[in-house]
UniProtKB/TrEMBL annotation:
Biological function: Catalyzes the dehydration of the S-form of NAD(P)HX at the expense of ADP, which is converted to AMP. Together with NAD(P)HX epimerase, which catalyzes the epimerization of the S- and R-forms, the enzyme allows the repair of both epimers of NAD(P)HX, a damaged form of NAD(P)H that is a result of enzymatic or heat-dependent hydration.
UniProt similarity note: Belongs to the NnrD/CARKD family.
Keyword field contains Zinc-finger: no
Entries under Pfam families matching the protein: Carb_kinase
Binding-site residues, AMP: G225
Protein name stated in the entry: ADP-dependent (S)-NAD(P)H-hydrate dehydratase
UniProt xrefs under NCBIfam families: yjeF_cterm
Top enzyme class: lyase
Taxonomic superkingdom: Bacteria
Organism: Amycolatopsis pigmentata
Swiss-Prot/TrEMBL cofactor(s): Mg(2+)
Length: 287
């Protein structure tokens, strides 16, 4: 069983967040890249969470065959159809489509609904040089598996990127088993020079640590991580610091899951339910 966090780790509480507010008068653009042929809904979940967290403008990049449907499902967003491989993964050739778009985004979320780690690695190598160094970066899901092959890919955003692995993805990033989430988050943060949120444990490459104990095991449902990545991206688009965005997003995500239990039960919770709940949670925390 994972060990509890050290007493030196700061707990994430509503009081902490209210004393660490994210400004609401500076709402930039967030871009979410993912949505392979078999999982187009992942970018829809992330994109909705981006807007719920307060981003001013949303852009989605996903498999070309799903672009129109995503645009209808998310009329608040611009949608860019991306080329795909024979097996339906978003192709490395997507970099050509996005060359004029990505440099203008304040926050870029990469990973929700990406498939095929080899193609994702090639995609990262081409896509990341397009992201402005003053932008903020969020990597999730298959993008993390790809990053584990070449950690220096995120070096231009040292201290300005956020990684949101689950336990399995954390083990890929570290190359060993994870039993202590706080220790693992700290190790990942140092190795990849990024802020990390891992199962409630949050760490910065400078050694700061927080822990949010409000989550529960049933948040590990399909699409839940996409919602968390989107929340982080939304806060970054509002000019939150990476640590601030990770703490706010992790707590909102956990609290939304708690609030849903009386209505959905612990086994019936859906990621789309989380998205619908986060707006109310954020409003309450901001009062």
């Amino acid at each position: 069983m994972p060990r509890p966090p050290s007493p030196d780790v700061t707990p994430v509480t509503p009081a902490l967040l209210r004393n660490w507010p994210v400004r609401s008068d500076d709402r930039g653009t967030a871009f979410v890249l993912g949505g392979a042929r078999t999982v187009p809904g992942a970018v829809l979940l992330s994109g909705t969470a981006v807007l719920r967290a307060g981003a001013g403008t949303l852009q989605l990049g996903a498999s070309e065959r799903h672009a129109t449907a995503l645009g209808v499902a998310m009329p608040e967003s611009s949608v860019f159809g991306l080329p795909e491989t024979e097996n339906g993964a978003v192709s490395r050739a997507a970099a050509e489509v996005l060359a004029d778009v990505l440099p203008k985004a304040r926050a870029v979320v990469i990973g929700p609904g990406l498939t095929d780690v080899d193609e994702t690695f090639a995609l990262l190598e081409r896509i990341l040089p397009l992201v402005a160094e003053e932008s903020r970066l969020v990597l999730d899901a298959y993008a993390l598996g790809a990053l584990s092959r070449k950690p220096e890919l995120v070096e231009p955003w040292a201290g300005q990127s956020v990684l949101s692995p689950n336990r399995t993805e954390a083990e890929y990033l570290l190359g060993h088993d994870v039993t202590d989430f706080s220790a693992a988050a700290t190790e990942i943060a140092e190795r990849y020079r990024s802020v990390v949120t891992l199962m409630g444990a949050i760490a910065t490459p400078g050694g700061e640590q927080w822990f949010d104990g409000g989550g529960h095991i049933h948040l590990a449902t399909s699409g839940s991580g996409d919602v968390l990545a989107g929340l982080i991206g939304g806060y970054l688009a509002r000019s939150a610091t990476p640590a601030q965005a990770a703490c706010w997003a992790t707590h909102v995500h956990a609290l939304a899951g708690q609030r849903l239990i009386p209505r959905t039960g612990v086994t019936g919770l859906l990621a789309r339910d989380l998205v619908a709940e986060v707006g109310t949670v954020i409003s309450e925390l901001s009062q």
